[in-house]
Amino acid sequence: MLQAQNLTRFLPAALRDRADEYLEALSVFLEIRDPRVLAALGPSGLRGLLLKRGKQGVPTRIPATHKAHFDWQYPSDQPEMRLLYTRAKQGQWDSDTSLPWDTSVDPENPEVPLLPREFVDFDNISSLGFRLNPKEEQQFIYSLTTWILSQFLHGEQGALFAAAQVTEAVQFFDGKLYGSTQVMDEGRHVEVFSRYLDEKMNKMYQINDNLFVIIDSLMSDSRWDMKFLGMQIMVEGLALGAFSTMYQQTAEPLLRQLLKQVIQDEARHVHYGVLALREHITKVLSESERREREDWAFEVALLMRNRFMAYEVFEEWFEGRMPRSTWREFVSQTPGMKKFRQVMFSRLVPNLREIGLMSPRIIPKYEQAGLLQYFSGAAADRLTGEQMIRDLDAERGRADARTQAAA
Questions:
Q1: What number of other Cβ atoms are within 10 A of residue 22's Cβ?
Q2: Is the C or the N end of the chain the one with fewer CB within 10 Å?
């Protein structure tokens, strides 16, 4: 990647940024060594990263092929999952009555910030020659927050459709019962994020290309366990970390309550993925099949890491004024986005370990990517949404106390 950047530095700015975009996408796929993983992700990468199918302004038609698994005996075959199904029924909530939609939201009000000023390293932006006044800083945080929430929304639509497919395809009946509650959950999440963006933010960004690639790949894969792995473990696990970070940092009360409700649903979804895949991956799949899924999970982890580069915000604020590579370095180092990645992968990596996709063969790749530090964390089957909320509130309380003491 670095050598390629050296070759493009003499191009005009617009061409250099376009070349950087394609080279960044190409670098991810050039690292794929398993041809089966390349075959699974390659077509989706072409549609998402090169053809920009998610940004053409029209509905996307993704070919979905999978076998629906019927069991006419209706067995109770997964006791732990049956308990999760009971919890999910008890945890249903009405988005109209559970959230204070009458809350007045001013996205640029510094007294009730969507995200704190220190979420962004504005000194770094100034050092790059882009000094923003206080009003512009608030507008930038508004843009960045809206972008993050927009990706939440797009991811939830993918989760809604994937949950419907998984419910059809999963091969144990208690999993089908639980899956029906997740479809309801995801529909509610699409509703609340869409409503918040429409009514309170008055703005929405298009789907990020990397996120499109992952959703496209999941929807078009015929294997039920790959849908589980991609959506329940990868997308939902990373989303749970991202929701947690924003819940902790926002001061906007409606958004905070919305995220609190969603986090408790999402914790069950990831738990479901761990229960469904743990025995299947470690006892049913062949070693060759397990290795393929292990490689696939690592490549998707890289795509998800790149997802949070917020290039859509770059295009709005700095395209033509700042090199795309400079923006990538800035976003990688800005405090809030570093926190996002830290919490996201602290949720993902332990779940991959728990289901048998962190063998000694793959661990060096995670270490090289800077993701192995999260290996020893608690997996989703040991965390409830309620416990997560308590932990997040306690951590925020300690942070507030330190701030007050310093003042």
A1: 13
A2: C
